[in-house]
Amino acid sequence: MPIHKSFTKKDLLEIVSTFDIPIEDPKSYNKINLGIELSNQLEIFELDYHHDFPDFYETIDLQRYLLNEKSNEKLNYKEKGDMIQKAKKIINYCRNGYMLSFTEYFSIDEIYEDGIIVANHCDIPTCRRAIDEFNKDPKVRNKLEKKISPKMKKILEQKKINKESLQPKMKVENKPVCIMFD
Fold first, then answer.
1. Would 171 be classed as within a structural domain?
2. Which of 17-21's residues contact partners 24+ apart within 8 Å by CB, and which partners?
């Protein structure tokens, strides 16, 4: 089972360490040899569920994931900057009351096309914010779906849980209270 070339050595090392796959000194391997060793181990190794990778319940799930191209392929520095600029242009459009007059866009279709591109890279916080605000536009009938990697989904869920737990709460109980004076 060959591992798709879009996975980096860092990705493979993270999978090995997270699932405790028995590969001796995985950092000493180069990417190709690590991929070969990992695929050999996955043929005989039985995977346990881990909360960092919620989509993998069995070894076959991880094998299928590694066969296909990595979701939300990371962008290089220049591409990430360009993506953030597109997202900022969409945010500018949204914060100006969804009016084209104060933006660089000439039609809603141009914004929608940029939105489709930005929605594919929602691991970047600016892109997520842009798509959230763009979907609130009353002129847009087909809302855009944010593409977020499973790992980022898990991180965002944990942040939401942490945020909710830090909010002050008040508990009210309706029961009789007895006050005695001496």
1. no
2. 18/50, 18/52, 18/53, 19/47, 19/48, 19/50, 19/53, 19/62, 21/45
Residues whose CB falls within 8 Å of the CB of residue 128, separated by 6 or more in sequence, listed in order: 122, 146, 148
- Same domain, yes or no: 111 and 130: yes
Kindly tell me if the per-residue pLDDT of 50 is higher than 90: no
Q: Which residue has the higher pLDDT, 22 or 146?
A: 146
Cα–Cα dist 118/91, whole Å: 11
Question: Which residues lie closer than 8 Å to 147 by C-beta, 6 or more apart?
Answer: 71, 72, 119, 120, 121, 122
Residue 182 lies in a domain: no
pLDDT of residue 139: 86
Provide the whole-model pTM.
0.59
Q: Tell me which residue of 63, 56, 7, 14 sits closest to 40, measured CA to CA.
A: 63
Q: Note the pLDDT tens digit of each residue in 14-45.
A: 888 888 888 888 888 888 888 888 888 888 87
